[in-house]
Amino acid sequence: MDRLIEAIEDKQNPSVVGLDPTEALVPKQVVASFAEEIAEQVEDPTEAPAAQLSVAFFEFNRAIIDAVADIVPAVKPQIAMYEALGPAGIDAYSMTCEYAKQQGLYVLGDVKRGDIGSTAAAYAHHLSGVNAGEHAFDPWHEDAVTVNPYLGTDGITPFVEAATGADKDIFVLVRTSNPSSSELQELELASGERVYEHVADLVEGWGAETIGANGYSRVGAVVGATHPEEGKALRARMPHTFFLVPGYGAQGGTAQGVAGMFDKDGMGALVNSSRGIIGAWKKSGKYSESMSADDALDLVAESAREAAKDMRDNLRAVLP
Amino acid sequence: MDRLIEAIEDKQNPSVVGLDPTEALVPKQVVASFAEEIAEQVEDPTEAPAAQLSVAFFEFNRAIIDAVADIVPAVKPQIAMYEALGPAGIDAYSMTCEYAKQQGLYVLGDVKRGDIGSTAAAYAHHLSGVNAGEHAFDPWHEDAVTVNPYLGTDGITPFVEAATGADKDIFVLVRTSNPSSSELQELELASGERVYEHVADLVEGWGAETIGANGYSRVGAVVGATHPEEGKALRARMPHTFFLVPGYGAQGGTAQGVAGMFDKDGMGALVNSSRGIIGAWKKSGKYSESMSADDALDLVAESAREAAKDMRDNLRAVLP
């Protein structure tokens, strides 16, 4: 986790921008500007809308990355948004990760993968790439991925090994930000613990052999900003586990609420905002449908930069 | 689930072939046969091995699909094996699904996705495709996908809605086949139930509004063949839930062991074998490195067909 921690210290900003584009979040003229180019490229016209939106997602992301790269340490593309468009979307996801990495950002792939051992080993190529040595090829360009714990240790170990080999990290779901997360994660066990507390202890254990110079392991935890009290308790329970904290902003999490998820030095957590930053242009009051695509992208970028600065300043205000 | 059930009845075979290729499972000469074609196509030579293996995976799958399409009702490509190769692998996954569908097979995408509501809605496009109506485009070509329950109801509902709209299905992880599955899934709750039993009840509930002509809902459950007693108890506990049963063969599950996961009519479960079928050529004693790529693919196909027949016959023998 040291690379991430250094990036956070460098920018003095423990926040990450979620690159989760949807059709509604990309200005229409940006999407429309690729119509001709795509129509010439695709063989089957039914493929055109997905291909067009995929290219628009990448350009939208690129504008945002350029606008925030000197402010934030990391971006977190949510692969589901790209997967929704099929293989063309996956290309846009990989291109987004690559571009963000080229701009010096830590790229956290929000993929929430998880499977039995042999299959988890295949997914772990997200971190280790395709080959070693001279023919090494890293198609995903991620510095970390999120992982689901439901399968237990043998579904996690391959990711930990890949992360260790490639100087990368993983973040395991512990307490997610959504309302229904309570249905499983909050169940009370016969031991008196909650399910998510038991998972928290597993996560702390999974990372134990990989603790870095800053005291945090390569196995982080996803802890939703919507659970401030539980997050604070988990901070104490998981002293070597770095937190990825989604749910800030649009989902209801606040700077005050996440303050308890940081350690005494103001480190130990990375707070994500997606819609609050990439959709800030919609609340700017400056958008008009008659704008050019370039002007619309400029507005997207400028609004995202302002929102990212606000978030940074709000977090700084509650940290030591 | 009615389309799957009809396909099983049609073939009189409740088994599914797992299309989980790895480099070790594809004869070397098949991979080598694409070297020249790929070298001409890729711009960056480091991309060549992944691109070459992706094409080989598809050709390998096509040979197997052709060999088993009249015997089995369904195939289950495991997307992790393709994702391991990056976007090129994802293309091979989508092409595999499309080809299997064209051959009349029910395509069960083993993707184990799961996320919060708005993100799950994006993943649900695996089932609903990209657009409706005239511009409808289905990039994934799946009839069903596997889903992870850790996020609770709001992570499942979008998949159920998409499945209902597209006459498709989902299978939610309940009790997986791997050794470490016990770490979370077997935990005893304060209520006296095990975690997986609680998940089982949620799954039965998630499907309640979607019960089809054959008495099974669109929300199936993944129950490992390696847990015969638990599987039998779950069969009684989940009367409207169809089971996908992985772990047969290479992982240790037997026909005798899975018999209890079927209902009294010998329906209600679909048993998966991957390596036991697609890797049968390695145990045939007929392979030689000097074979041509075509001959090697013929051996793969013929061995897979024999193994699929054996599995069908073994399952028929224990069912009413």
Automatic annotation (TrEMBL), chains A, B:
Lineage: Bacteria, Bacillati, Actinomycetota, Actinomycetes, Bifidobacteriales
Residues at the active site: 112 (proton donor)
Record-linked CDD domains: OMP_decarboxylase_like
Organism whose genome encodes this protein: Bifidobacterium adolescentis
Enzyme class, spelled out: lyase
Top-rank taxon: Bacteria
Involved pathway(s): Pyrimidine metabolism; UMP biosynthesis via de novo pathway; UMP from orotate: step 2/2
E.C. designation(s): 4.1.1.23
The keyword Lyase appears for this protein: yes
Name listed for the protein in its UniProt record: Orotidine 5'-phosphate decarboxylase
All copies of domain Orotidine 5'-phosphate decarboxylase, residue ranges: 52-290
Catalytic activity: orotidine 5'-phosphate + H(+) = UMP + CO2
Keyword terms of this UniProt record: Decarboxylase, Lyase, Pyrimidine biosynthesis
Pfam families to which the protein is assigned, alphabetical: OMPdecase
GO molecular function: orotidine-5'-phosphate decarboxylase activity
